[in-house]
């Protein structure tokens, strides 16, 4: 996945990626797998955000947030686990990471949000930038943010969340951008934080930022919504707030990272069956196909996964065929070593369930590509390839003839002997179709 500083390295000189390129993130490992309930501030709550309202400006100043989180961290760090326990929890975190295949903060692929620039660079930028970032410190202090956020209970973070939600409604674009970035970070790993942020009214305030002309703000907002969508209750909240159309807008207009994360957010929302038709009806299929054509390897995987989920509905299968998905899928089937061929074959087998899909697959050269996959593909790839060919040939004498002319019988015969149980059965069934007399087969064929 493209990290945040990479996606914006040419957009803003305020971030200097070289300053932390060799710095490892130090954090209390494994804490994303559980809620840490501490007794912080039971005896002294005089420094709470609520009592410091006079110090909180719309700029969400570093001094207020850093002071509060720093105090919480200094106390919570005293009860940190031993290294061996931390390593064990980290292994569990990796094993049970939510949607780790998605290009999101949740996957753990985004290692840092930003890096602190030299003071002289900041001074130069302050003189040239009419609206500097109001709260860089909270985002840029990697050790600070990682260790603190993952060790503070949601109850203690609630004032911080409220400040961020209020900041989303500021007239200042810089304040909105910074508030969205903070919520993105807070929702990165912890389910209890996602629930807290959803309950705090962040979702309706984030959605308008998906149409912001500032690409940074849009990217922070879409990634925050992606992270929030991993919490089950937030899926309905995000959908009911009207996010689908705006997420489709990001798919069309966003940065590469924004498009990828919008696709993943739509994937999460599509886990609710009623949303699949809504997402297709709002125009998500064509920009997903465009991402499949023009995206990075990561973006293509996200597009394939989302298309597969949406194409469980007949209407979306038809939309995918009309959007030109079949040609791209056939091309991907022929690409070995990219990790995309199997995913492409899965979607092709889904589209082969409708007449329009079968016609398009044949017209785009799908039969020779699928024969090649049976010869040289992976074990799973062979299963999906023979399934798709079976769907293409079940009721079509013409397609059976094309398969024979492409040399399909020898690899099918080999698969019927050496494939998995499912692959063997499908290969034997397909070979049976190919052996039928043409006159007999033609009675049930167009």
Which characteristics define this entry?
446 residues, mainly alpha, 27 helices, 63% helix, disordered N terminus, disordered C terminus
A few lines on this structure:
The chain is mainly α.
Characterization of this structure:
By secondary structure, this protein is mostly helical. The chain contains 27 helices and no strands. The two termini are about 45 Å apart.
User: Structural class, judged by helices and strands?
Assistant: mainly alpha
- Strand proportion, as a percent range, falls in under 5%
Low-confidence stretches: 1-63, 76-144, 439-446
The major pleated sheet works out as: none
Q: Care to count the β-strands?
A: 0
- The quaternary organization reads as single chain
Instruction: State the helicity in percent bands.
Output: 55-70%
Write down the overall geometry: elongated
The first-to-last residue Cα distance is 47 Å
Count the DSSP helices.
Answer: 27
Task: Indicate the topology.
Layout: H1 4-7, H2 62-76, H3 83-95, H4 119-128, H5 136-140, H6 142-149, H7 154-167, H8 173-186, H9 191-199, H10 202-206, H11 215-228, H12 232-240, H13 243-253, H14 256-269, H15 273-281, H16 285-294, H17 297-310, H18 314-322, H19 325-333, H20 341-351, H21 355-363, H22 366-376, H23 379-393, H24 397-405, H25 409-418, H26 421-435, H27 438-442
Helix pairs in contact: 2-6, 7-8, 7-9, 8-11, 11-14, 13-14, 14-17, 16-17, 17-20, 19-20, 19-22, 20-23, 22-23, 23-26, 25-26
């Amino acid at each position: 996945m493209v990290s945040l500083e990479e996606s914006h390295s040419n957009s803003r000189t305020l971030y200097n990626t070289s300053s932390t390129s060799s710095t490892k993130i130090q954090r209390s490992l494994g804490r994303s797998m559980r809620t840490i309930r501490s007794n912080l501030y039971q005896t002294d709550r005089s420094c709470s955000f609520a009592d410091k309202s006079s110090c909180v400006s719309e700029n969400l100043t570093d001094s207020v947030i850093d002071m509060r989180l720093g105090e919480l961290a200094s106390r919570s760090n005293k009860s940190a686990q031993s290294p061996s326990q931390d390593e064990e929890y980290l292994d569990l975190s990796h094993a049970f990471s939510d949607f780790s295949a998605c290009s999101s903060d949740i996957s753990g692929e985004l290692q840092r949000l930003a890096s602190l620039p030299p003071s002289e660079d900041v001074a130069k930028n302050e003189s040239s930038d009419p609206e500097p970032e109001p709260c860089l410190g909270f985002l840029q202090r990697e050790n600070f943010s990682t260790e603190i956020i993952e060790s503070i209970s949601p109850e203690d973070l609630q004032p911080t969340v409220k400040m961020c939600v209020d900041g989303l409604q500021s007239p200042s674009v810089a304040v909105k951008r910074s508030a969205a970035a903070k919520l993105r970070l807070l929702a990165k790993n912890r389910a209890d934080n996602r629930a807290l942020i959803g309950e705090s009214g962040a979702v309706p305030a984030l959605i308008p930022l998906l149409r912001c002309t500032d690409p940074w703000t849009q990217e922070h907002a879409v990634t925050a919504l992606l992270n929030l969508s991993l919490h089950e209750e937030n899926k309905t909240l995000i959908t009911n707030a009207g996010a689908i159309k705006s997420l489709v807008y990001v798919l069309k207009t966003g940065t590469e990272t924004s498009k990828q994360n919008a696709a993943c957010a739509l994937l999460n929302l599509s886990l609710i069956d009623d949303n699949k038709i809504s997402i297709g009806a709002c125009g998500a299929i064509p920009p997903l196909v465009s991402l499949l054509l023009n995206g990075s390897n990561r973006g293509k995987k996200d597009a394939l996964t989302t298309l597969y989920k949406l194409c469980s509905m007949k209407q979306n299968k038809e939309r995918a065929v009309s959007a030109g998905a079949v040609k791209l899928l056939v091309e991907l089937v022929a690409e070995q070593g990219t990790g995309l061929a199997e995913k492409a074959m899965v979607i092709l087998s889904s589209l082969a369930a409708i007449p329009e899909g079968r016609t398009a697959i044949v017209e785009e050269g799908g039969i020779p590509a699928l024969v090649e996959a049976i010869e040289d593909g992976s074990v799973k790839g062979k299963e999906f390839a023979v399934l798709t060919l079976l769907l293409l040939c079940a009721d079509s004498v013409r397609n059976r003839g094309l398969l024979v002319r492409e040399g399909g019988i020898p690899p099918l015969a080999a698969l019927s002997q050496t494939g998995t149980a499912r692959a063997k059965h499908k290969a034997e069934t397909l070979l049976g179709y190919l052996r039928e007399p043409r006159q007999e087969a033609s009675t049930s064929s167009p």
